Amino acid sequence: MPQLGMQGPMKLVPSEIDRAVPHKTPGNFALGYIKETVPRAFIPTFVGRADSDLNRTLKELDSDAEWFKWRVARNAREAWNVQCKNFHDFWETGHLDMDEHPEPPKGTGWKCPVCE
Ligand SMILES: [Zn+2]
């Protein structure tokens, strides 16, 4: 299994998000479930990013996922690069519930560092 390089997993509920995740910073997150193997494994089903506010983005998600992992990014460009790497790394596991490649922030024209 590839690595996410994120903190967590934590329950995807507002109180848990507020307990750990900073406001007003770009960042990355993964949504998923826990597989009760030994050791326990977090299986990502979605990899996302926040361009400006990781805490708010997580709270505004419309997702049935029970668990998430997260990391802070220095800027939106780094969050984009990390999301692309996460997407390509975990696409190959077959667990991602994502039909399409992530899109860069509107108006940036940023290319995927992995496939473009
Ligand atoms: Zn790509």
Describe the structure.
By secondary structure, the protein is of the alpha+beta class. It has one domain: GIY-YIG endonuclease. Helices cover 25% and strands 26% of the residues. The protein has three helices and four strands. The protein has a four-stranded antiparallel β-sheet with strand order 1-4-2-3. A hairpin with a 5-residue loop joins β2 and β3. The relative contact order is 0.23. The model has no long low-confidence stretch (mean pLDDT 96). The structure holds zinc ion. Zinc ion binds next to α3.
Q: Sheet bearing the most strands, described?
A: 4 strands, antiparallel
Task: Report mean pLDDT, rounded to a whole number.
Answer: 96
Please give the oligomerization state of what you see.
Answer: single chain
Strand order, sheet with most strands: 1-4-2-3
How many DSSP-defined strands?
Answer: 4
Helical content class: 25-40%
N-to-C series of helices and strands: EHEEHEH
The top-level CATH class is Alpha Beta
How many individual domains? 1
List low-confidence stretches: none
Ligand inventory reads: zinc ion
Shape: globular
Distance between the termini: 24 Å
Q: CATH topology, anyone? A: GIY-YIG endonuclease
Radius of gyration: 14 Å
How many H/I helical runs?
A: 3
How much beta, percentage-wise?
25-35%
Class based on secondary structure composition and strand pairing: alpha+beta
CATH architecture: 3-Layer(aba) Sandwich
